[in-house]
Request: fold
Amino acid sequence: MILTAILASLVPGALSTVVLALAFRAWRTDVPVDRARWALPVALTVAWSFGYVVLRGWPALPPVVANEWLFFLALGATAVAVAGAAWSAPSSLRWKAVRWAARWALSALVPWLLLQPMVAHTWTGSERWLWLGAVALAVFAVWSALESLARRVPGPSLPIALLLAVSGTAGALVVSGSALLGQLSGALAAGLGGVVLLTLRRPDVTLERSVMPVVATLHVGLVCLGYFYAELPAAAAVLLLAAPLAPWVAQVGPLRRLGSWSGAAVRALLVAAVLASALWIAFHPPETPPPADSDKDAPTHQYENDYSNLGG
Amino acid sequence: MRVRSFFAFAALMLTVGAMAGTARAAEPTETYDLDQQHSYVTFKVKHLGLNWSYGSFGHVEGSFTLDPGNPAASSFTIKVKAESVDTHVEKRDQHLRSPDFFNVKQFPWITYRSTKVAKTDKGYQVTGDLTLLGVTKPVTTDIVEVGAGKDPWGNYRTGLHAELVIKRSDFGMTWGVDNGVVGDEVRLTISVEGVRK
Reply:
């Protein structure tokens, strides 16, 4: 058990750190950020994928279980992120349109692939489109909000806040009945640990045009899996989705003028406050009525075992 | 004279054979629906390698067909609702229903459908497809016919019992296998009562 925990958490963290150290040449501080920006999503995905394989083994192709799709979605998000990091022509309208289209496409793909069993077995009619649309919107909103935040917040402040948000999500998922989903979130947190270390060494590194596709896909994907397939309460799920966005509050009013470490502390506290609420709800889920006794509804046969009829 | 005797003997043999075949064909195929309230699927699995942990499924349905004249044509189908898993500890049952184990919201049913049946002294040897977590694997088991007869309400019932051992990792259920918290080998006991249609 300890070996699995080490392999699924410490090793991903180490992998992420090594990839970033090599890409950014951590022994120097003059490597231009844009030249190595592609390494941020790659390091995160390498770390998380390693954790996935340790915990669950290689995913089947085509995937059989919903969480196996997450493995391939992470690869897709990495491709989008690397393309965004490599081609930085923000002023071009055509490139903006391509980036937005890619963001929408990936956002729509996340619920479509992860929630197919719900579409097949549970939802009917407009219900399926409402849920698929809502989750796609959540991916898009989290991604866009984080991308916008990343442009405004350099240094380790935002990576620390993200690390905290994802770690708290791991705890909530474990409490909600799925150790596997919690451990997968933990592997993502471990990967973010490498990003934190990089930004401590290179405070000029921002996370814009880099990790957010991967973070949004995996974080929203894992929360969705926890809500739809485990027992994560709805309110906790919403709070966990909002947790990485809590640092936006520190962009308002006098909080914007805080120094880098004060700002980092405030952002971390904001995330912690949201997480505390989510964890409390996960620990104290609302009472749900017991499942309907399906045997009661089962057709009673003509040979009903009414023992009171015996003996007259 | 010898030729005539030969043809008479051959005719007699053919007649006897035809009568036997007709008699065999006359034995009707019997189709049974499982009595859900008297059908059980239970399991045991090792916990930490120290002792057995037991559980059962509350919702079992299915049917079987017995062909006395041609046992190989018999068939057995059983469906278990994964959500009905019960180990008498609610938190553990919640974990079992999660993606770590039965992943019930994605795979609501566990099914077994026979593909090959052979008659044995005590019942049948059955090979069939067990589908768990979307993975289908062939599993062979001996089904024992425990008893058969009329019930007080005029229905004809047959009781069948089978035991089988599977490795849950073969079906992608790997949580707890590596660290030995939950054993890989699962011993299933299936005991069903069918009511003849």
